[in-house]
């Protein structure tokens, strides 16, 4: 498979939203991101493509309460998003408040499943040791969000191969894994896919796809 269809494209700071959409459509990436005010523009521009328009909540800080984040998900759903990324409360992650994390992930997963929304939960693996990551994956196996995403790309470290491998060993095929943060080359992308990720997040998506095309002689 061409790797572009496995990449959620992150907008480059120098690009306008129009340029971002144009590049995503030209390269046929899996997904772009929009806020509630950009949704209709993105949806209409990408209507004749396979590019998904995804939303996001509480990004990148992860400060909201469960109730506030659910309200954000509801707002995104009413706007029209059917794929939404939310981030685990980072205070709860840093202080290992597993009961809170279980309630948050479970309520988001149920909310999204009832409305046929793909729920991608950002967990920020750089703040987790093996024990914490294992507990979070066990929670995910119980409540089944669509996907766990390694990183916001805004913290002190992005995706790590050993942690993606651990996630895959625990989640199997029951919950997808999205690796994001610091993936800038086709070789890196291939390594994360081999480790168990099924989706990648990258602002260097165009470079990655061009590297694949060069290697394949396309």
UniProtKB/TrEMBL annotation:
The keyword Lyase applies. GO terms for biological process: carbohydrate catabolic process; deoxyribonucleotide catabolic process. One of its GO terms (molecular function) is deoxyribose-phosphate aldolase activity. Its EC number is 4.1.2.4. Keywords: Cytoplasm, Lyase, Schiff base. Signal peptide: none annotated. GO terms for cellular component: cytoplasm. PANTHER family: DEOXYRIBOSE-PHOSPHATE ALDOLASE (PTHR10889:SF1). This is Deoxyribose-phosphate aldolase.
């Amino acid at each position: 498979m061409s790797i572009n269809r496995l990449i959620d494209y992150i907008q480059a700071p120098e690009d306008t939203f129009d340029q971002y959409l144009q590049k995503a459509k030209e390269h046929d990436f899996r997904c772009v991101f929009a806020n509630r005010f950009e949704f209709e523009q993105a949806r209409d521009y990408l209507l004749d493509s396979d590019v998904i328009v995804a939303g996001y909540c509480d990004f990148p800080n992860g400060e909201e309460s469960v109730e506030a984040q659910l309200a954000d998900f509801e707002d995104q759903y009413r706007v029209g998003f059917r794929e939404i990324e939310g981030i685990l409360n980072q205070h709860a992650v840093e202080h290992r408040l597993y009961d809170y994390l279980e309630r948050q992930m479970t309520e988001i997963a149920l909310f999204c499943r009832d409305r046929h929304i793909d729920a991608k939960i950002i967990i920020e693996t750089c703040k987790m040791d093996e024990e914490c990551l294992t507990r979070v994956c066990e929670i995910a196996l119980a409540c089944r969000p669509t996907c766990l995403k390694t990183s916001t790309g805004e913290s002190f470290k992005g995706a790590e191969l050993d942690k993606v491998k651990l996630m895959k060993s625990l989640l199997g095929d029951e919950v997808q894994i999205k690796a994001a943060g610091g993936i800038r080359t086709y070789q890196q992308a291939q390594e994360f896919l081999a480790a168990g990720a099924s989706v990648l997040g990258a602002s260097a998506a165009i470079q990655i796809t061009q590297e694949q095309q060069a290697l394949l002689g396309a």
